[in-house]
Amino acid sequence: MPDRLSALDASFLYVEDHSTPMHVGGVAIFERPRDGFTHEQLLDLIGQRLAFLPRYRQRVLEVPGHLARPVWVDDVDFDLNYHVRRSALPQPGSDGQLFDLVARLMSRRLDPGRPLWEAYFVEGLAGDRVALVTKTHQSVVDGIGTIELGQLILDATPQEPEPFDDTWQPRREPSRTQLILDAVAETVQRPTELVENVRSIAHDATAMAGKVTETVGDVASALKTMVNPAPSGPLNVRTSGGRMFAVVRTRLEDFRKVRAAHGGTVNDVVLAAITGALREWLLSRGSNLTATTTVRALVPMAVRDAETAEFSTPALVGNQVDAYLVDLPVGEPNAVLRLQHIGHAMADHLDSGRSVAARGLLTVGGFAPATLHSLGARAAGSMSGRIFNVLITNSPGPQVPLYAGQAKMVEMFPVMPLVRNQALAIGVTSYHGGVYFGLNGDRKAVSDVDLLAGMIEESLEELKGAHW
Question: Of the four listed, 28, 33, 385, 390, which is most buried by Cβ atoms within 10 Å?
Fold first, then answer.
């Protein structure tokens, strides 16, 4: 049987265009060890482990006449050097230069004629550091059969580099005739398959609304969202092809201190810090905020269990996934009250089932907490832009250092994609005592994303010093 793309995976290919590339990114920064960390060593490391990710050596092949959804086939011309590229920053190799490069890389679509991923080994970063920037298409990472590449190359202990001996042999690509015969056979067995495929290609709005309901897994929740669309504002504008990327570095201990002082969870404090920053950012743009003004966030989160909903997991395995539509109270001027509103909203979701449930993410594309950011992007990409204003993925990471070969990873930043008519996406990851924010903004609509990043730091400081 052909390895055919699911309807959701295929939809990410159909809706992609130059302004909304459908890939998830990541930026990992490493300390270069004494004996070095080279592009060749990274090639060997990735090459050794691709056997565990067969999808990364497969490309998408269209079926003639769109008689069925595309299929995955082995790339007979697979070239690891094409996918693992080398780059360098000009002196002084600042973080700002790195993040400018990240923005340019993330704005470019992946080549649909090759396996849908790329990795960039970036040298020249000040402080004898190197960076690994990854891009993986949302159709690739399903959370079950395939995880994100960056997770596979990281180990809990340093590993001696070993030369890579490639013995992989691609399977023969199916002929045009075979693709047609397989499609016809499936259509005979499932006559509705052809209609669904044609609708997906045509971006049929009714079909997409049905997919939203199916993905959410809760008809009442989906209908409530469609009846009450997200508030309008500067975060929902026509998406351009350019991107801006900024980061925030914070300490996990600070979030825990705020939680201890005011209650809630660490996740609540993260959302409150973002809410305070969005409030100041909107005010800086002259927005007229009232006491009831909100910004609706789609927030997929991984937590160990209901009692430890914080960034404290020892590994990126075995977590639960919950995703919520949360109205962030940007109109509330008091930082503690903002935190309390968010805490109540999250508690109400847990109690009432009004969230985009965990089973919804299972439907979206499988379950693997190491790829939560990718699954969150899949959830956002499958929904109408009318449902939410901003995507915020919030994933706990390991609190022990990780290594690529012998190079210690010191920081990690998610890069979430923008869906159509969305101007901002925020990824949050904890790692080894830190909490790291990656802000991906539309270059035209959110050109001041670095200003917003600074406001997150200020908002956290406000929470730390806040009193009842």
Answer: 390
